[in-house]
Specification:
Length: 339
Amino acid sequence: MVVNNGIANDARVIKTAAALRRAGAEVTVLGIATAGGPREETTAGGVRYVRLPVFPRRGATAAYLRFALARRAAHLVRDPRRWQRTLPSLRWYQRAFTRELRALDPDIVHAHDIHLLDTVARTWPPHRCPFVIYDAHEYVADLAVAGRRTRREVESWAAKERDRISDADAVITVSPEIATRLAAEHHLPRRPTVVLNAPVRFDGPADPGAPAGPVRSLRAEVGVSASTPLAVYGGALSTARGLGTVIEALPLVPDLHLAIVAVPYPHPMSQELRELATSLGVADRTHLIEPVAAHEVPAFLASADIGVSAILGTAASYDMAMPNKLFEFLHAGLRIVTS
């Protein structure tokens, strides 16, 4: 498997790797190390996780200067259809992943998201390329513009998907609606298979050396009694995830406490959320909680009363999403409040 992040907070990648290992496959997941960091390798539950040094650390170094100049040059290219020029990160992916992929000599490569699909296809000549699966985690043609992601970047990734989706021997995705769109818009020979973001069933922890079952209680960490109403949000955070809206609603429900179990932890938005809660007089009912391992999430959340997903309807990708948290809430037996 290949993915353009540090793996640890990508529940779909971890769950897929664990499920394949349980089915008898030998699984290696290649991800990205912290910028400027060394190559890292770990093993959990029989899955080998390798984080590759891809991007340079920000600073006065020749490596970072080359990277910064490439990004600056990319901004001069206005046409997103020229994605090879507008997405400078592709060169760094190619350098880091090609050697590792060739050394592994896999039978199947599972490319999570669009970022590394062309890197996989270019690693081998067409007649020697392994079976390639493209896993569309999102509807790339209309990703939300949030944080550092610009509209031009979204259009560039969409153009890349249009040009390179045919490199995949099979396409899977997260929801029926996205599957239908991909089949129609890219004239695929068959509709992508839908693999939901559902929790993996574990008889024990992913790492055989870890203790069985959740070792923490959400309600205990929040510090409220069993009779106190408790809502929980779990997963990645951005302005588009609507946590500001949820906090703004807390004054309307005087007894309700909100637990935010966000990745990464501590989260860059933590201070912003605390300041909002303080300004509304609900800081004592807003709790930022350290997350647990992916296989422990449903049991960890189960002591709450309500699961909250308030994603803002700013992009078609969000409108068609069926995120991990939805299924984690279901498995935890929670009532769900969603946008």
